[in-house]
Amino acid sequence: GFRLLSSLIGWASLSLLALASFGWLTTKPQRTILLVLSALCWFIPALHARHSPENIGGALFFAALSLLWLTSPAQTRVSKDLLRLKGPTDRWSVVIGAILGLAFEIRFSTGFLTLGLLAWSAFIARMPIKKIGLLAAGFLGVVVLTIPIDYWGYGQWTLPWLNAAQAELARTHDFSVWGFTAYLREVITRSWPVLGVLGFASVVMTWIVWPRHPLTWTVAPYLFAIHFFGDRNWENILLLGHVLPLTFVLAATRPMPRKLSPQKRTAYDALERRVPAKRWTQITQGVFAWNLIALFVTTVAPAWMRTQFYSKLYRFRAFALHIHSGPAQGPFSTLG
User: Fold this and answer.
1) 24: nearest Cα among 80, 82, 79, 92
2) Is 134:94 a contact under the CB 8 Å cutoff?
3) Euclidean distance between the first and final Cα of the chain, in Å?
4) Got the DSSP string for 258-271?
């Protein structure tokens, strides 16, 4: 049941992001490629079925980002007609803020994504102060409403997101030896060969090619923030999987060529002359074929994982199993 719910949330988020991206991708081939990747990217089924805080919190955040774009004056008419969003903009702002607050309550690190989104709304999209205030009101409303719910569930007054942040800061030193290269190490060692590195490279390339894009203003601060917290684990990086189909396309797309600087236009033209179009097609086809193989393996492999897990427990049934709660602050210190 939880896996089904997680999958439905993930697919809804992915669909909204694809619709919102029609405002950034102006040609039919770009949109077609995005839709194909969104449906057939190798990790999507396994990611959406993973009912972890990072996955669900990330799905909710990117759904909120998509809705914010779709309800803003800057979005394209095509995106709005497809989704047919109705109702006052103010009402949508509160709803979007509430979704952001729910994502934060599920996984506190999405708060860094939210801060980046608010900064983008203020400085790049130049949204009215009233709309940004309504977003913040919806966010804070959910945070306040969950306080008595946490009391009912835990039996004492506690802020799980604050406890989780303190726990992460307490163990920052455990990750400091790797520095910022920990991201690349995790991608190389724990992702599918080649594809994981290409995915991470597409995220970085999107920052360079699309510096004013909301994904740049949200994902970049998020990675630097969790680097500061020392929480550079695979689960936090996995959260970015929701946007990889889009970053694959954005990284290979010229954003409004007429507005590119002469230096960037020259760099693009030189790259296109160096690699013929036929060779690009062959490379793309090879990567996509490798992706389909990975899709089959990552989709089928979890079918055996549960059996392996319980088989392992059965072999160790003679031993006592203990669950430890982390630092000495108490059993609520790492909940969140």
Assistant:
1) 79
2) yes
3) 21
4) GGS-HHHHHHHHHH
**pLDDT greater than 90 at residue 166:** no
Classify 1 as helix, strand or coil. Answer: coil
pTM of the complete model beyond 0.85: no
Q: How many CB atoms lie within 10 A of CB 28?
A: 8
Helices 28-40, 277-300: axis angle to 10 degrees equals: 30
Angle at which helices 214-229 and 244-251 cross, to 10°:
120
Structure tokens at 88: 């006052």
Tokens of 277: 């179009």
User: Are the C-beta atoms of 95 and 135 separated by less than 8 Å?
Assistant: no
Residue 265 has which token pair? 């236009």
How far, in Å, CA of 159 to CA of 143, rounded? 9
Residues 6+ apart with CB under 8 A from 326: 167, 333, 334
In angstroms, rounded to a whole number, what is the distance separating the alpha carbons of residues 171 and 58?
23
pLDDT at residue 230, rounded to an integer? 62
d(C-alpha 96, C-alpha 92), whole Å = 6
pLDDT in tens, 79-135: 444 444 554 568 889 999 999 999 999 999 999 999 999 999 999 988 999 999 999
- Contacts of residue 17, defined as CB under 8 A and 6 or more positions apart, other chains included, come to 38, 62, 63, 65, 66, 242, 243, 246
Residues 244, 290 contacting (CB under 8 angstroms): no
pLDDT of residue 19 exceeding 60: yes
Q: What share of the chain is helix, strand, coil (3-state, %, to 5)?
A: 75, 0, 25
Q: Side-chain half-sphere of 88: how many Cα atoms within 13 Å? A: 5
